[in-house]
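dumping this here so i dont lose it
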């Protein structure tokens, strides 16, 4: 059984609140990244007290209200499906605070966590605050929404981004990694991928592997799955006829994204 591939596990913790995924340092090999995927029925609420971690609450689909008991952000969230391909709203909450999320409509949220000691202001990250990028060429094209990039100083550790990849294209490609604390050339960042496909019966392939192949696993990833990337290269291949969405959470000892392309495949970038 794969240690990197997580299938949805539906756990109803209270009326209208269903935990789809929960990745922690206790149930995974990750030290810097944790996450939850939660479905909320209309009117249902989820509450959490944060210790020495910060959290980015992503309104993946549906509309929600979010409060940190001082501020409240109402009716946030912009889409019913991620494949509308428009940015959504998120809320950053710092360590040693609490928050509550109430569903206005049926909603799915992703809670992104990483260690944090320095308390920062709660912040609404509006959809229009997301920077949008079109990356790659040929069969290596993807659309990127930067929710919490390293240029945004709102967080201490967290980096959050979502990526759309068209049918028949590759993503996180050519293979790159960020598993060495070797700045300015490369930063150490753990990562998780939350995947969705359109249509839902689709799948993608994701390979996670290191230079010495001590880690080398290729997975068939289905709608709603999570892939853990503790180290190594991590490309994604999207079959013909299906679109891919994934949300990445990254964190490490330093909040900077500096990656290293696998030398054997770097020539792909130089094609005319």
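and the seq i came up w/
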């Amino acid at each position: 059984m794969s240690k990197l591939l997580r299938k949805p596990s539906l756990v109803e913790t209270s009326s209208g609140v269903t935990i789809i995924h929960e990745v922690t340092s206790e149930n995974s090999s990750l030290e810097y990244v944790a996450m939850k995927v939660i479905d909320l029925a209309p009117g249902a609420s989820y509450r959490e007290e944060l210790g020495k971690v910060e959290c980015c609450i992503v309104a993946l689909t549906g509309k929600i209200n979010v409060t940190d008991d001082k501020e409240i952000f109402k009716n946030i969230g912009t889409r019913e499906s991620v494949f509308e391909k428009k940015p959504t709203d998120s809320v950053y909450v710092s360590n040693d605070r609490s928050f509550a999320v109430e569903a206005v409509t049926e909603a799915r949220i992703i809670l992104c966590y990483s260690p944090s000691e320095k308390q920062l202001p709660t912040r609404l990250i509006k959809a229009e605050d997301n920077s949008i990028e079109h990356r790659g060429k040929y069969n290596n094209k993807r659309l990127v929404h930067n929710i919490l990039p390293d240029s945004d100083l709102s967080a201490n550790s967290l980096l959050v981004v979502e990526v759309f990849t068209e049918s028949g294209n590759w993503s996180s490609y050519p293979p790159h990694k960020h598993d060495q604390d070797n700045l300015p050339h490369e930063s150490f960042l753990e990562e998780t991928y939350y995947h969705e496909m359109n249509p839902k019966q689709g799948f993608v392939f994701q390979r996670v592997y290191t230079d010495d192949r001590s880690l080398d696993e290729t997975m068939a990833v289905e709608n709603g799955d999570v892939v853990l990337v503790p180290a190594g290269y991590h490309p994604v291949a999207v079959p013909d006829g299906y679109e891919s969405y994934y949300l990445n959470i990254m964190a490490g000892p330093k909040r900077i994204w500096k990656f290293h392309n696998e030398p054997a495949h770097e020539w792909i970038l130089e094609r005319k």
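DSSP finds no helices and 26 strands in the chain.
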